[in-house]
Design goal:
This protein is α+β, with helices and mostly antiparallel strands. The protein is built from eleven helices and twelve strands.
């Protein structure tokens, strides 16, 4: 309460000192001088000679790149327009009005250039906020209306996601020709980007400007416009981690088709799963792309190459499985497979036959060519059965020489010999059947192993081809991109 009582005298002194202040009346006098008594009309072009055009300098201040809609080919930006011109009928002497040099006038009270963006995609077409106009004592006028602009932009998706986009903002007078309004840029370098807010998806390269003077056949007048080009570059970090790296990893999994053994029974299912995964990623990319047939994006070409690779991998896997499970009962191995696949191609790939029946058979054939004694052993083994069958004749001759007079004993001995011979013959027949069966199984296994070896050779050849195709296409696509990191 005490402090309040002390402040009251101070406030009274301040009010008394400024009671006679005329600061606000000077501006009111300026406005009355300019717009009073019917001396000013906002419909009048502010030039002393009607044959001369109004010189309007135009520029933009790019504040923010809000969104780039590739699918609808529309760009949303936050821009401040900056227009300045000279009005001969808005001049006063500051010394006559308390040194007031500038006044702020509502845009509805003064003449302003009817400059609009020609390629606007907004519903209201003109998206600017009608701010005041700053009028100086020498007649210069400055108008800076801010706005949220939505403009059309032809999106070029050829190098997506390593692409640059150039979106034009075309500004010009809607009703005045070049003879009545001369439009020029206030900055030769282009738009002002000093206050630009960084965008997480796009990097701003620059905003150059181009002045166009167009003449049409229908009309003798010229039309002037200023075209600001927003040059932006896509940041690839997001697409690299979410699309490119998973695609490369999934395409690398297709190489596992040739490493997985054919007997596992999962080669076809693995290839189909990889192909479906690539289709899912391709749909994600297609959702962000505009439905156009003018160009194919770079990442779309890469996905197409990888899908072709996966499809070929599945086809090669089917061929390998077909060869792996062939048998002599269903197929006969042609000579060109033995000579080309199992011979030349296996030698080129530095592949040797694995150990087993086929390997031992080949080794024996090679040793037989170098050691003739193996032929003698083979002949002895073939004559073994004939020697066993001659045992009965040797026994009969020996028994006939020692007991030539005993009929009973000879008959019993003869019956015993017949029984022994029958048993031996039966045993030899069974051994022959078993031997024939084993030999046939061995020959079938040899043919099956030949088919399996051919499948292994083709499998390795397809693995090398797909490996070179995968890394070759990846490096080719990456090196053809204009830039990799932005």
């Amino acid at each position: 309460m005490k402090s309040l009582n002390q402040l009251i005298p101070v406030m009274a002194i301040v009010v008394c000192c400024f009671k006679g202040s005329q600061q606000g009346s000077h501006e009111r006098q300026v406005l009355a001088h300019l717009f009073g008594h019917g001396n000013y009309s906002k419909l009048e072009r502010p030039v002393a000679n009607e044959s001369h055009p109004v010189q309007v300098k135009f520029g933009i201040i790019l504040q923010q790149l809000i969104d780039v809609d590739e699918k609808n080919q529309v760009v949303n930006t936050n821009i401040w327009l900056q227009m300045s011109w000279h009005a001969y009928n808005l001049v006063w002497d500051p010394s006559d009005f308390g040194n007031v040099t500038t006044v702020r006038v509502p845009v509805s009270m003064v003449w302003v250039p009817d400059i609009l963006m020609y390629n606007s995609a907004s519903e209201g077409f003109d998206a600017t906020f009608r701010t005041n106009v700053v009028v100086s004592s020498d007649g210069s006028c400055l108008w800076v209306p801010p706005g949220m602009f939505k403009s059309t932009c032809a999106i070029d998706i050829t190098w997506f996601p390593f692409d640059d986009q150039k979106c034009d903002l075309k500004f010009g007078s809607w009703t005045h020709t070049g003879h009545y309004l001369n439009l020029s840029q206030d900055n030769e370098a282009g738009g002002d980007t000093s206050d630009f807010i960084r965008n997480g998806e796009w990097e701003l390269i620059g905003v150059p400007v181009r002045r166009n003077v167009l003449e049409y056949e229908c009309c003798p007048e010229v039309y002037i416009d200023l075209t600001f080009t927003i040059h932006i570059r896509r940041r690839t970090l997001y697409y690299g981690f979410n699309i490119i790296i998973p695609c490369v990893l999934i395409s690398s999994l297709s190489l596992l088709l040739f490493i997985l053994p054919p007997d596992a029974g999962e080669k076809i299912s693995l290839g189909t799963t990889i192909l479906l995964s690539l289709m899912v990623f391709l749909l994600l990319v297609a959702e962000t792309m505009p439905p156009t047939s003018d160009a194919v994006p770079l990442i779309g070409i890469y996905f197409a190459c990888i899908m072709i690779l996966c499809s070929l991998s599945v086809c090669f896997t089917v061929i390998v499985l077909n060869l792996h499970h062939r048998s002599p009962d269903t197929h006969h191995m042609p000579q060109w497979i033995k000579r080309f696949v199992c011979g030349w191609l296996a030698l080129a790939l530095r592949m040797e036959r694995p150990g087993g029946v086929v390997g031992r058979r080949v080794a024996m054939q090679r040793a037989r060519l170098n050691d003739p004694r193996l032929d003698t052993l083979d002949e002895k083994s073939r004559s073994l059965m004939a020697n066993v069958l001659d045992i009965d004749d040797d026994l009969r001759m020996s028994n006939g020489g020692s007991n030539g007079g005993g009929n009973n004993s000879n008959s019993s001995v003869k019956m015993g010999k017949v029984s022994v011979r029958y048993d031996i013959v039966c045993i030899l027949k069974e051994i022959r059947k078993i031997t024939t069966k084993f030999r046939k199984d061995e020959e079938e296994n040899d043919v099956k192993n030949e088919w399996k070896f051919a499948a292994m050779v083709i499998d390795k050849a397809c693995f090398i081809v797909c490996l070179l195709f995968t890394f070759g296409s990846t490096f080719a696509i990456m090196l053809s991109a204009p830039h990799l990191i932005a």
